[in-house]
Amino acid sequence: MADRTTRDAAEARYVAAIDQGTTSSRCILFDRRGHIASVAQKEHTQIFPQPGWVEHDAVEIWRNVQEVVQTALNDAGCDRTDIAAIGITNQRETTVVWDKTTGEPVFNAIVWQDTRTADLVKDLGAPVGPERFRERTGLPLATYFSGPKLLWLLNNTEGLREQAERGDVLFGTMDSWLIWNLTGGVDGGTHVTDVTNASRTVLMNLRSLDWDETILERMNIPAAMLPRIASSSEVYGTATGALDGVPVSGALGDQHAALVGQCAFDEGDIKSTYGTGAFLLLNTGLEPVSSEHGLVTTVAFKFGDAPAHYALEGSIAVSGSLVQWFRDQLGAISQASEIEALAASVDDNGGCYFVPAFSGLFAPHWRSDARGVIAGLTGYVTKAHIARAILEASAWQTRELVDAMVADTGMDLEELRVDGGMTANRLLLQLLADALDARVVRPHVVETTALGAAYAAGLAVGFWPDLDALRANWSADETWSPAVSQERRAREYRQWKKAVERTLDWM
Q1: Of 74, 164, 308, 410, which one is least surrounded by beta carbons within 10 A?
Q2: Using an 8 Å Cβ cutoff, are 406 and 436 in contact?
Q3: Using CA atoms, how far apart are residues 475 and 379, in angstroms rounded to an integer?
Q4: How far is CA 465 from CA 9, 32, 35, 122, 308, in A?
């Protein structure tokens, strides 16, 4: 199998990356230089049954994935014989449970943004609080992570716990759901997850890289429903359907995939991704670093039999989605791209600050009671000032995360590599440089999340020989340097912190 896979990889032209995101699913084909050959994308429905509840239809997502894979092949003028491997990257904490006999989900997928588990999380932490499992998992107990979502399903779906104990239903994040379906589903599909996704469940021991029996017992979660934890780069199985026979050989949670796509393989490398939310990851090397300042400790990646690398992460719940809110809920702009020119039409925010705590605040605050505020409004403030405050919100939230990383590690940030859809906004990247007092660098290929999944899959089958081959693919597109005074930076950061205080204790 290994020899045949290696030979096929040498003859193949592309690696296929399936990027299953919060708002859409995509398939991107990459060549050996890491360049994009084709892209296909399809949005899926956002389901909001109650305030704070966010769901997806996992069947719709699987159907969309099949469609974008075929479209990407067609657009590149190729077929499965041109594909060396398939990599998966996914919205990490989104949780799905399905019947292994019928292949049908027992409930809609509960999305990472969902806050229905707030009371459950408090109960799980008692009497210690949200830090109860942090030493074992690197994570606080929070609505963000998938373990409490799974427990909510077990507690609130009739008969599900009994099915789970019998092993009749399977749990997974979206990587597991897609790999199982890609590799045959009810006809022998592989039930697996990679270490990066498993490290976001509050169920995996960060050092053993296996499910933690003590936590499973305390949370009353049947082990029989959990996937096998594998590395981020190995052959999990072979695909059926349009990619029949192609190895499925890479899986990384989306932010870990972006770290890999940025070639941040060494201790001290740091990147930030700006999409629906924003996520800052610092590679801390072969040892996990515990945070004392509100960050989470997570697995960065693990390639085959090589040791795992760890990371400190700061997560921002609302970044690009705030621009979408400005467009869709307020109707202030007709296209998301219009916000850059609107925000650039004024020299500053007019004293206005926007803290988008729509689902509470993630790192470094971890306050589910917070709700969004616009502070500092006067009669002078216009739509343009609010647009600028919206972009500044991502910059100041990033500054909070960088400050926490500096406090935890003693590092000095000189350069931040950025990626994600929002990085098309050049004003945002200048605001980032100004807030951080550091260089901001955007690579030529900004689709680093999908690229990281492709790299993981391609490494497993020899499409790329080693990490140096990947490093050779990376190059900078543009760099932004700080352009404001220290006095202005400090003054505006103080005002931002005051605005954050106004969001607390709302619920």
Answers
A1: 410
A2: no
A3: 46
A4: 11, 11, 17, 47, 19
Among candidate residues 287, 89, 272, the one with its CA nearest the CA of residue 194: 89
Position 81 scores a pLDDT of 93
For 12-51, write each residue's pLDDT tens digit.
899 999 999 988 999 999 999 999 999 999 999 999 999 8
pLDDT confidence of residue 5? 53
Residues of the chain with pLDDT under 70: 1-9
φ, ψ dihedrals at 53, nearest 5°: -95, 135
User: Residue with structure tokens 């740091």?
Assistant: 270
Assign 210 to helix, strand or coil: strand
HEC secondary structure over 45-87: CCECCCCCCCEECHHHHHHHHHHHHHHHHHHHCCCHHHEEEEE
| Gap between the Cα atoms of 279 and 401, Å rounded | 9
B/e letters for 468-489, b = 16+ CB within 10 Å, e = fewer, are ebbeebbeeeeebebeeeeeeb
Phi, then psi, of 452 in degrees rounded to 5: -60, -40
Residues recorded for the chain: 507
501: three-class secondary structure by DSSP:
helix
Exposed / middle / buried, residue 227 (Cβ in 10 Å: 0-12, 13-18, 19+)? buried
Question: Do the beta carbons of residue 316 and residue 279 sit within 8 Å?
Answer: yes
The whole-number pLDDT of residue 1 equals 33
CB atoms within 10 A of CB 394: 26
Q: Are 246 and 254 in contact (CB under 8 A)?
A: no
Q: List, as one string, the DSSP characters of 353-410.
A: EEE--BTBB-TTT-BTT---EEES--TT--HHHHHHHHHHHHHHHHHHHHHHHHHHH-
pTM of the model: 0.88
